[in-house]
């Protein structure tokens, strides 16, 4: 009897995790939320689920997001993704001297109209990146971002935010010696997927 009840409880928890993941994916895709934890907490609240064990992992939300886009926004999402990758290519050419790498949703294929083009630049002189923007008269904002460098170490890194072709560009500047190893991905906790300019061009060439 206890075993059956435990199995039923486990099934309910699994179903609740799935419901929260699906709602969180909808909030991300249609509501513009970017933070996965915020999205799943808001989704749980909307569904009236307040059990911490029922909160899905980020990986589950990522899977639900891909499914949502495939079911409801396949054509529009494909066009948006291509446009963002084209903008990424031009931004990478602009920052070519800083060994740019594309990261995030635009690379992974889950980007939508709310997504920014996220780049990592590698440079030991932050003022050189700033000067590159200033010399072209590009207005920008600055902030910092904490990245996990490995399982034990994290660091705060400068970020430049600006727009190009009506797209948000989000540039994180890391020391040049970090080019050898990517920071950890917040979802998989493995080294972040990155792409150099040639790889981004290959993605564009593979699309009609």
Count of distinct structural domains: 2
How many helices? The count is 7
Structural class label? alpha+beta
Distance between the termini: 58 Å
The CATH class of the largest domain is Alpha Beta
Which CATH-level-2 architecture of the largest domain? 2-Layer Sandwich
Reported by name, the CATH topology of the largest domain is: Beta Polymerase, domain 2
Provide mean pLDDT, rounded: 88
> Over the alpha carbons, how many angstroms does the gyration radius reach?
19 Å
* Biggest sheet strand line-up: 1-2-5-4-3
Strand content: 15-25%
Order of helices and strands: HHHHEHEHEEEH
Q: State the major sheet.
A: 5 strands, mixed
Task: Characterize the overall form.
Answer: globular
Commentary on this structure:
With 208 residues, the chain is α+β, with helices and mostly antiparallel strands. The protein folds into 2 domains: 2-72, no CATH class; 75-205, 2-Layer Sandwich (Beta Polymerase, domain 2). Helices cover 49% and strands 17% of the residues. It is built from 7 helices and 5 strands, in the order ααααβαβαβββα. The chain has helices at 2-31, 36-47, 58-72, 74-94, 105-108, 126-135, 197-205, and strands spanning 101-103, 117-122, 141-148, 154-164, 167-174. The chain has a 5-stranded mixed sheet. A hairpin with a 5-residue loop joins strand 3 (141-148) and strand 4. Helix 1 (2-31) crosses helix 2 (36-47) and helix 4 packs antiparallel against helix 7 (197-205). The longest helix has 30 residues, at 2-31. The chain is globular. The mean pLDDT is 88. This is UDP-N-acetylmuramate--alanine ligase.
